[in-house]
Amino acid sequence: MKRILIISSAVFLFACNSQTKGDKTTNADSTTASTDSVTYVRVEVDSATQMKNWQEYATPSPVHQMMASWDGTWIGDVTMWMPGSPEEKSTLLTENKMIMNGLYQQSTHTGTMMGMPFNGMSTLAYDNHKKEFINTWIDNMGSGLMVMNGTYDSTTKTITLKGKGWDP
User: Fold this and answer.
1) Do the strands 39-43 and 72-80 form a parallel or antiparallel pair, or are they unpaired?
2) d(CA 49, CA 123)
3) For residue 21, is pLDDT > 70?
4) Are the C-beta atoms of residues 90 and 113 closer than 8 Å to each other?
5) Do the Cβ atoms of 23 and 33 come closer than 8 Å?
6) Using DSSP, how many helices (H) and how many strands (E) does the chain show?
7) How far is CA 94 from CA 33, 71, 79, 163, in A?
8) CA 79 – CA 114 distance, rounded (Å)
9) Is the pTM value of this prediction over 0.85?
10) Which pLDDT tens digit goes with each residue over 22-32?
11) Strand partners for 25
12) Backbone dihedral region for residue 74 (phi beyond 0: left; psi -120 to 50: alpha; all else: beta)
């Protein structure tokens, strides 16, 4: 536990430090750094504004409340098509629950796929700043992690997520 916390803290501090050796200070409140193709501007804000911004970012929004309405146990009918093979149907049991103070939804999936026991897990997040969904997926049929991003269409009541995964 300590090791993860220390590593996470080091990564967070490194990621938040946007100053580099070549930074130029334009005034007391901002810093500019340039590379060949990108210019970064870091604007200093007072601690009260920083705290307010973090609180807004970390507060569940109405979108998070919508996600919470999907909590519970679901049965999913799955149809899979493999090249050169007939379609394969299976049923999965999915359990959704909100975690981390209502900011993320964790889903566990159990059933069979291709005649073998199947277990999968996903997390669904809504980024209050970017106004987009982020989904992660892992399962026992591979050793990779898939990340997908997308938006919600209120007209069709659907989230369209796009990402890339490995197909051995």
Assistant:
1) unpaired
2) 30
3) no
4) yes
5) yes
6) 3, 10
7) 47, 10, 16, 21
8) 11
9) no
10) 444 444 455 55
11) 31
12) beta
